Amino acid sequence: MTAPRQVVVCGAGVVGASVAYFLALRGVAVTVVERSGVACAASGKSGGFLALDWCDGSALGPLARASFALHAELAQKLGADYGYRRLDTFMLAARERGRLGGGHRVAAPSWLDDAGVVTGVLGSTDTTAQVHPARFTTALLDAARARGCTLRLGVVEDVVQRDGVARGVRVDGATLDADAVVLAMGPWTTRAVRGLRLPTVRGLKGYSVTLDVADVPAHALFVDYRAADGRAFEPEIIPRPDGEVYVCGMADPAPLPDSPDAVKVDDAACDTLCRAARRVSTRLASARVTRRQACYRPVTDDGLPLIGRVPGVAGAYVATGHGPWGMLNAPATGLALAELITEGAAALDLGPFDPARL
Ligand SMILES: Cc1cc2nc3c(=O)[nH]c(=O)nc-3n(C[C@H](O)[C@H](O)[C@H](O)COP(=O)(O)OP(=O)(O)OC[C@H]3O[C@@H](n4cnc5c(N)ncnc54)[C@H](O)[C@@H]3O)c2cc1C
Question: From the CA of 35, how far away is ligand 1's center (Å)?
Fold first, then answer.
């Protein structure tokens, strides 16, 4: 096969940025087309939590393990500080009202000094890590741009085809020519480009807040929490090295808006997350809230991403549907897709993620 010289990547989330990076490393001329801004959606608002082995036992296991290793390599290679570090990870139980009895079940970090009961250890610095999601996405794209990739702001409206072969994309009414096209528009992928034989990708909304607290240890927390009104949910509390503590949770069935710019933030949901964080540590109790935000993770019907060729259109590829693990799995996705595009096959088995499976 002849490797494509010019590839258009649609979407500048972490997945598009990773595909662009690994293509640019292979000498391909890449244009990334993004409608709003780099990492403006879930890739800028996620936890950035990474785990080596939490996907073991599912089809995602090899992708996650390969990606966890690539994250460590990229932290050395990209030459940017995006807060990559290893973490210890704990499971906690806490209630907004009242206290659970019995005390910590395992040795608990001293900063968890309020109503939370540490019930288990979920990961160590060998198996869990984090990145700042927006900075990681930007670092990937910057590294791609340093190798000639260009970023263009515009709305992708269609894949331009001739005789069943992708020839580019329509962006704001004009054709942008390319030898190959990668669709990586997160939950908007199958809405932005219709008429392709792709399984529907949907958006699942979640909220997050950030708190301004310096020097919280590198301990990620997964909390079994009950709000005062009886609602049960599982906030994730992830301290970052830059003095920010990130808290997320609260699934919301609200439909996906047409653009990331139109995502609405529900203050009540964010307040609930703040209260949950404040219950587990006096360090967080009076911390200032710096951001309240919402975003949609891209999900498929079987919970597995779509990574591979678009059925029926030569030269068209898709990489989306990574659900709760897009930050983790973006590097191995980008590498595998770049190999598929330039060499015709990926070292990693992409069979479970074949877009034609659903
Ligand atoms: C609250 C929350 C916490 C999370 N925490 C974690 C975590 O700790 N670890 C982890 O691994 N994963 C986490 N995730 C999941 C992860 O954030 C996502 O899987 C990942 O960000 C998806 O990246 P993406 O590039 O596919 O999509 P997105 O980030 O949605 O990017 C898609 C891009 O495409 C652009 N776009 C859309 N339509 C068009 C168009 N027509 N033309 C041009 N551009 C377009 C958008 O503007 C956007 O920039 C979390 C998700 C949520 C919601």
Answer: 13
